[in-house]
Amino acid sequence: KEHQSDAGGNAALPGPAALGCARCGRPLAFLLQVYAPLPGRADAFHRCLFLFCCREPPCCAGLRVFRNQLPRKNEFYSYEPPSENPSPETESVCLQLRSGAHLCRVCGCLGPKTCSRCHQAHYCSKEHQTLDWRLGHKQACTQDHLDHTVPDHNFLFPEFEIVIETEEEIVPEVVEKEEDFEITGSMGKESEELDSMAKHESREDNIFQKFKAQIALEPEQILRYGRGTEPIWISGENIPQEEDIPNCPCGAKRIFEFQVMPQLLNHLKADRLGKSVDWGILAVFTCAENCSLGTGYTEEFVWKQDVTDTP
User: Fold this and answer.
1) CA 165, 166, 167, 168: dihedral to nearest 10 degrees?
2) Where is the signal peptide (predicted)?
3) Are 137 and 115 in contact (CB under 8 A)?
């Protein structure tokens, strides 16, 4: 799983302190990971981007993205790719390796906190310990042998593998230049306001039409990857300027790498708890130099663009 792209479920990730919502402070939910090694970079033979979101009402707004990379020769993965048909001996070793770091029963992230009664259940935070207690651990806690079957806490999204294919180049039928509308009538402030409104609506519609034309070949696509290219915005509102994208802590600029499409929300059933996370486009920007910071996680930048209702 570490060498593929996924949406939903859980993953091996940074510690609880790094995975708190910057707005409300509650634990973030794993949204997706993109396996994106960089050709020609020995230090990024294994490279993955992890995106998290807050799905805790009434916030449902926090977003964080992390980058992790390793050279081909490292202490975690074998130099050669694993066999698609592992031998029984390999499967036995995999079973032994399951007893690793303690993971949170709710979100699957590192779980340094332990239930003080049974000392068998582990959590990333007090919030998730409380949630698990309410959804069944209160009864299971007193049992001699804790049932490690984890209940559905309605916290994780359903898990899917993301299949990425190269897109054929298409020429959108939408005229790219903005149309100039002439407003006839009396001159003055009212005419100028009408002219401004017409041009704004025209630009908004033009951007949305280009968005639809670009995804026409695969309307259900959930992710677009193109490091160093430009995002396809869904609206003319809230498009970031260069100064809106912060530089990497190493000093290098950040460049666009991938965007998450609104179609993903349908697959993740994000609204099953009522109010939940929502977006038009999530655009992820990463260090242009792809700085190497050892075996740790580097936080990158995500820009959220909502869908704008045009009158």
Assistant:
1) -130
2) none
3) yes
What span, in angstroms and rounded, lies between the C-alpha atoms of 47 and 43?
9
Other residues' Cβ atoms within 10 Å of the Cβ of residue 19 = 24
Burial class (CB in 10 A: 0-12, 13-18, 19+), 147: exposed
Q: What is the pLDDT of residues 178-228, one digit of tens each?
A: 444 333 334 445 555 545 555 556 778 889 898 988 888 888 899 999 999
pLDDT in tens, 136-148: 777 778 776 665 6
Helix (H, G, I), strand (E, B) or coil at 201: helix
Contact by Cβ (8 Å): 302, 34: no
Measured CA to CA in angstroms, residue 291 lies from 51, 161, 183, 201, 246 at distances of 19, 28, 52, 41, 15
The CA distance from 36 to 46, in Å, is 8
